[in-house]
Design brief:
With 230 residues, the protein is mainly beta. It contains two helices and 15 strands. The radius of gyration is 19 Å and the shape is elongated. Pfam families: Por_Secre_tail. It comes from Epilithonimonas ginsengisoli.
Length: 230
């Protein structure tokens, strides 16, 4: 396996700490037994937080690999958090996917810890060098991560439904009586519309395509629904 500059991309809202950093230690065969600190550098178009190891200057030691630079962010197309490693120079243009998690409270704005959902090792890149999926025995992931499954709240009172789908003019939402707001993103994760919560939403001005409707309550808990605009 050639030398890599690594990024971690992970991109949910319960069990969150107030910290804006994530400390990761794992995959010792590749990264050595050392801590990597990720700083929250902002949010993407879907409201998910982005974390990057800093400084990005090509000098962060990473065992036999040389240097490592990481990023944690949400992949809206694959609907999962990703742990990425940069391929060189810290530009993150063509990063290596090291782990991904598509099962750990995907509605939250920050990533899950190594005990929530499944952080799956991408063995096609690591060549099994990380020793399998992340667990509490082979790694630590602390700070601005959530450590529990979603709490009981408005979204658990009934099954949230959206209709019609595909839609031409108006989306109707049932199964929830109140929430804080609603936003719509395209499949690239870019926000195209945001409004206060309503059970009937005018989407007639959207261009044809596939979108994600996210309903967010006052506690930050969210529920996402995919729809097609005709």
């Amino acid at each position: 396996m050639k030398k890599l500059y690594f990024i971690i991309a992970v991109g949910f809202a319960f069990g969150i700490t107030s910290a804006q950093t994530i400390t990761f230690n794992g995959c010792h065969n590749l990264f050595d037994d050392q801590n990597f600190v990720f700083n929250n550098t902002g949010t993407d178009g879907s409201g998910k937080k982005i974390y990057i190891t800093t400084p990005i200057d090509g000098v962060q030691s990473c065992g036999g690999l040389g240097t490592c630079e990481f990023k944690i962010q949400w992949n809206s197309v694959e609907t999962r958090w990703e742990f990425l490693a940069d391929s060189g120079n810290g530009d993150f243009v063509a990063p290596y996917l090291i782990y991904y998690n598509s099962t750990g409270n995907n509605g939250a704005p920050n990533p899950p810890s190594n005990s929530v959902g499944s952080w799956v090792e991408n063995t096609s890149v690591t060549e099994n060098g990380c020793g399998g999926n992340l667990t509490s025995t082979n790694s630590t992931m602390t700070g601005d991560v959530h450590t529990t499954t979603l709490a009981v709240g408005d979204f658990s009172k009934g099954k949230i439904q959206m209709f019609p789908n595909p839609v031409t003019d108006f989306i109707n939402v049932s199964g929830i009586e109140s929430a804080k707001n609603m936003l719509i993103t395209n499949m690239a994760g870019q926000e195209v519309f945001k409004t206060d919560f309503q059970t009937r939403l005018d989407v007639s001005k959207l261009t044809k395509g596939i979108y994600i409707l996210k309903i967010i309550n006052s506690d930050g808990q969210s529920h996402s629904l995919k729809f097609i605009k005709k």
